[in-house]
Design goal:
three-stranded antiparallel sheet, 15 helices, D-Maltodextrin-Binding Protein, domain 2, alpha/beta, globular, 2 domains, five-stranded mixed sheet, about 40% helix
């Protein structure tokens, strides 16, 4: 968790940063990985506060949803950038020969959680071993493999999760997957009690989250554009979490009317409390940090789990060229 004093220093560093020269604002389209929410707050903040404008970027934000394939739109040139939810996505692109590359990681911690009812006593992963857990089909191929490999979870624990809270709410011993900034709040509103929530990132799960991705072609042809987009977006995240997010939140609610002030405030508080954005390598390397060592460790786990072949050239899935420049840190 970042201190208040350090947050102020980060903002001071933000305001002092030089702007890269550009002759005109470049039009850019970025697609998010879901409908507008606080988990995209840095992007909306950069748009609302003028950070993108400062970096000579005219950015259009297109929100995602259940029926949109952001990667397909990015690969086809409909988007210039897209948000990737977790570290499996870049590796899947490498596996399938798709030239999409992660260039920054807004989330140093993936917000994936497991949730149990208050009073159930299921407050550790060890206690959840052997218990039925509501897991989506997609999750079986990513963080479930971490739980299986590192904590001995078994596939016979899996119960289908369809993003409906009712089965959890009606089963006092139920456990379900969720997102730190989403389902726990909805459950608290429904039950009047805070559920037990375990952040997998704090239990050794090394996936990045909310990564900014673009195509290899864009990196090759327009590296300055990529750098400006990365810098502006990551500074947007610093400002969103440490400054006044009200203008960004207004844009989020405009794009997604289901968002309320209470939901957004809860999400921001969770991101701050758990250091989702400002923790780990970002505290020394700057916002958006990624490292070869962490990617190597993550890939090693995936090969151990049998998800990818050991000879997969996983390094093609990410680039460190645009990060680790101490962006936003006090000078």
């Amino acid at each position: 968790m970042i201190s208040r004093t350090f947050g102020i220093l980060l903002l001071a560093g933000l305001l002092a940063l030089p702007v890269r020269a550009a002759s005109a604002d470049d039009k850019v389209v970025i697609g998010t990985d879901w409908r507008a929410e606080a988990e995209h707050g840095g992007i909306y903040q950069a748009a609302a506060s003028g950070i993108y404008k400062k970096y000579h970027l005219d950015v259009e934000i297109r929100q995602g949803g259940p029926n949109l394939n952001q990667a397909q739109l990015l690969a086809a040139g409909r988007y210039d950038f897209a948000v990737q939810s977790n570290s499996f996505e870049p590796l899947n692109f490498v596996k399938n020969g798709v030239p999409i590359v992660a260039v920054a990681a807004a989330f140093q911690k993936d917000p994936q959680v497991l949730i149990a009812h208050a009073g159930s006593g299921l407050d550790t992963l060890e206690k959840m071993k052997g218990k039925p857990i509501l897991i989506s089909a997609a999750s079986r191929e990513n963080f479930w493999q971490f739980l299986r490999m590192r904590y001995g979870f078994t596939d016979d624990q899996i119960r289908p999760y369809t993003f409906n809270l009712e089965p959890f709410l009606h089963g006092k011993d139920a456990i379900m997957q969720g997102y730190l900034t989403s389902e726990p709040y909805a459950i608290e509103q429904a039950t009047g009690e805070k559920p037990l929530t375990i952040l997998l990132a704090d239990q050794g799960y090394r996936s990045y989250g909310a990564m900014i991705a673009t195509t290899q072609g864009t990196i090759d042809r327009k590296p300055d554009l990529v750098q400006r987009m990365v810098d502006a977006t990551m500074l947007g995240w610093i400002d969103y979490l440490n400054g006044d997010p009200s203008a960004a939140n207004a844009l989020i609610k405009r794009d997604n009317p289901e968002m309320t002030d209470a939901i957004i405030a809860h999400a921001i508080a969770g991101m701050k409390q758990y250091g989702i954005v400002q923790s780990g390598d970002a505290l020394s390397l700057g916002a958006g940090a990624m490292t070869d060592a962490r990617w190597r460790d993550f890939f090693a786990f995936t090969t151990e789990a049998g998800i990818y072949a050991k000879d997969l050239p996983y390094q093609k899935g990410y680039s460190l060229k645009f990060v680790n420049h101490k962006l936003g840190l006090p000078q």
